[in-house]
Amino acid sequence: MADEQAPYAGPGTSPGTAVGDRPADVDVIVVGAGPAGAAAALAAARAGASVVLLERGPFPGSKNVYGGVIYGRILDAVLPNWWEEVPVERWVVRRSTMVLTETQALTVDFRTQTWAGPPYNGMTAYRADFDSWLAGKATAAGARLVTSTVATGLLRDAAGRVVGVRTDRTDGELRARVVIAADGVNSFLAKESGLLPKADPKHHTLGVKEVLSLPREVIDERFGLRGQEGLDIEMLGNTRGIPGGGFLYTNSDTVSIGAVLALPGLAAAKVRPEEIIADLKAHPAIAPYLRGATVKEYAAHLIPEGGYDHMPALATDGLLIAGDAAGMTLAAGIWLEGVNFAIGSGLVAGRVAAEAAAAGDASKKRLARYRDELEKQFVLADHKRLRGAPEIILSERIQRRYPGLVADLVESLFTVTNPEPKPGALALLRRAAKRNGVSLRELARDGLRIGKVFR
Amino acid sequence: MTNATGDGARGGGPLVVVCLRVTDLRPEVDPLTGVVTRSAHGAGLSAADEAALERALAIARAWSGRVLAVAAGSPIVEGPLRAAAALGAAVLRVAWPPHDEADGHGAAPGAASAVNAASAVDPEPFGPRAAYLADLAGDTRALAEVLVDAIRTVGEPTLVLCGDLSPDRGTGALPAQLAHALGAAQALGLVSLTPTDDGWLLAERRLDGGRRERLRVPTPAVCSAEAAGLRLRRAALPALLAAGDAPVPAARPTRPAVGAVEVVDVRAYRPRARVVPPPAGATPRDRLLALTGALVAHDPPTIIGPTDAGQAADALVAYLVRNGYLTA
Prior knowledge:
The complex is a heterodimer of chains A (455) and B (328). Chain A is of the alpha/beta class and 455 residues long. Chain A contains 15 helices and 20 strands. In chain A, a hairpin with a 6-residue loop joins strand 13 and strand 14. In chain A, helix 1 packs parallel to helix 2 (127-140) and helix 8 (339-359) packs antiparallel against helix 10 (369-376). The longest helix of chain A is centred in the C-terminal third of the chain and has 21 residues, at 339-359. Chain A is globular, with a radius of gyration of 24 Å. The relative contact order of chain A is 0.16. Chain B is of the alpha/beta class and 328 residues long. Chain B has one domain (7-251): HUPs (Rossmann fold, 3-Layer(aba) Sandwich). Helices cover 27% and strands 20% of the residues of chain B. A 9-stranded mixed β-sheet of chain B has the order 11-10-9-12-8-1-6-7-13, with helices on both faces. Chain B has a two-stranded antiparallel ribbon with strand order 2-5. Chain B has a two-stranded antiparallel sheet with strand order 3-4. In chain B, a hairpin with a 5-residue loop joins strand 9 and strand 10. The N and C termini of chain B lie far apart (53 Å). The interface between A and B is medium-sized, with 36 and 33 residues.
């Protein structure tokens, strides 16, 4: 029953509360009802475990920060024909990559109607809708969702094993055989457990976005779309030299535009992130798309981009970590994927946790199966194969010099210099490289590195 | 009317009822067309209704009584009702406005539920749009009578509490209609309500000029109050988990939704154009001055009071007579 308000409603900083040998209340507690947590709760419930899914917001996805493309193939494991009911904004059929300088833009635009019909490839969606939908699948499978409740710390037994969580509610201790921490990039539980070290700014970026309102028909007309077709633009350059890039996604009657910026670069530049968005919105290649748009909301969020080499250990006695809490976001240049990796890791975590609970063995050794299974799947296989990508993508030359080099090269190629004869392409390349401070040797070396990473 | 409630309201002691209005607290309004889109994500109680629930729980504790939380609406109201159940209230949903709920509208509880709040996206979580609009446009008498019918299946209330107004309807008329239907005293628009040892209630209400009036309210009574001067309690985790699985009983009204006013159409307010004669004046400046009334001497505002109610009423009537609104 209700009592006085808990005196402290924030995350705990203690190494965990030791508790007695009271039996577990449930098999699995999942903390965080984002894509990873909802998928974990779903998988565990489907495997027959009793599950409580804790969410600090008033409903799953209430933060609604994500502004990207959700790639749906992983949802085949959640629900057959999921596309018939998923709350989609638009199905992405156009994928553009823009290289920007302050006054130039080179766009590589790809479009396929194959992505406009089942089984689709990627979609834009509001996380408030998508997360609620996915969590709804978990509750339909038997998981119990508890919202507006913060997990403030871990419960441990005398041997130091994680046996539950403490929440900010009265009588808020809840015990389980396995706890899955899917509480996001700044996971307090993973930190408290010792699995997640103190955040290193080098391995995090800041994503900032604005959601701009435009009539649906205007979006269709300006971006060459029909019906539920959508566009995803990824941008390199025009971020005032701060490593990162921009993005633009079309929703039904809004457009999400924003930037993902490396934290050390952002701090050193002493620029506010909204200024970078303002630059992108004012760029001559972008501004016509957004004419007359009004800001509907804005948000910012940290993104773990360290990749495979900087992932924490994924399990300890009684505890698994999944999704952003485990640094599962794939940031590999042309591939920027998070939700599908979160769902993939969550599904495996839920299944492994349910099996461990059923076997009565939640030891670190048993839970190591989680990582083994992820290594066999795309989640860690892709991360492992692209482990060198974050470093090279965020390197100084790629971020600061190559956009200008490419744009200058293309501009000189298409600039008619009559009555001077056309110069050779190699000469133009040399000229553009020199103007942007890149030697041909560096160019070749980077080409080899990129080829090696993406082979 | 069919009914079932939790045991909490059937025990001994005075029955304190809190009437809750569940609506989308953050609806989207198209600035061009005025079309309102409601989402299940924003479904919840206004601050005034949350305060009413808190007051009900506190007063029931002081009186050693029981609390019944009632909400009228589609099944989306079950979320906030479960949250109230987790705080110790018995709960009852009144299916309102009366329509066939078999179509699945609002089939899952919404945002304010602390347990199992997620649902598939329902385009009409608050029930069919036409029924919802007609309910908003209609008067509250029929709703008040249906609520009283539902409450009386549980017991005769000693106190009925409401928020001072709902975010979507916003008339604040329901408490008065409830008091009429119950034959109870009413004290509306309060800022505080305290039970006394002798079974009365001590209420405070704002007056102009920063002053407040204090009322002694007999029971049975219907009171509405602002969200002021309270700290809301939070449900304990075990109670929340228990309430999350519990069914919410529903009462189906036997009376029709019509009230004293029949609504035949719902549309945006469009005031009629008024023909204004052209202003007199030889120059544009003169015409502008005539049109706006600038530079014309006006009677300054008259401050009457502080005075008693009778003298204030006399002053108002005298003003209306003096300016031709009333005949002497």
